[in-house]
Amino acid sequence: MPATPSCMTRSPPSKKISPGMTQTEQKSIQCTSITVHPLLKGRKMDEDDEERLEIPTVSFVGLGPHFGDDSIFFDKIAASMQKWWFALVCIDRHWWLYAFEIAQKRMWVLDSMYIGEHNNERLKIHAYAGRIIEDMAKVSMPAYQRTENGLPRFYPSVPKQHNGCDCGVFIIKFMQFWSLEKPLQLWDKVKLNML
């Protein structure tokens, strides 16, 4: 790719020949310039470069400046009076649930596929969710003090799914039983088959 792409290119010769001319008439057409990142100028991209370009940069994006102003989407008063908040997440076609215990400032991760350890990417997602939840708590309860190192996370024992498609039903039942303060194990695969 040239360092400074030309914005004036010749069009193909037209069939029209003017009287007295020995050459075909040519017109110049305008094109938009292509912006090239300075690090890529003069470099030919290989497969590794293309793969790196497809990976998004992960950064924390907080709540918008007017979050909580519209009670249709988030009722600050109603939210501040709850004991628990639930936050559902779906990534890579898998659903799991965060249960935020407001008074104790704890976050419970209810995941029907959790087997005892998470990779770094999942831990980053948990930390990000905790920051968003604490931002929401600050909006609904101005006196709320954010935790210094992020919300502590707990992984309760939950029934496990045995396929790749029931996670949504599991989190619905987790929310139902969690709200009623019933042991989650009371709901199991037998009950899933009855739905």
Automatic annotation (TrEMBL):
Source organism superkingdom: Eukaryota
Biological processes per GO annotation: protein desumoylation; proteolysis
Region (Disordered): 1-25
Pfam family for this entry, one: Peptidase_C48
UniProt GO MF annotations: deSUMOylase activity
Compositionally biased tracts (Polar residues): 1-12
Annotated Gene Ontology cellular component terms: nucleus
Keywords: Hydrolase, Protease, Thiol protease
Domain Ubiquitin-like protease family profile: 1-178
Family in the record: Belongs to the peptidase C48 family.
Name of the protein described by the UniProt record: Ubiquitin-like protease family profile domain-containing protein
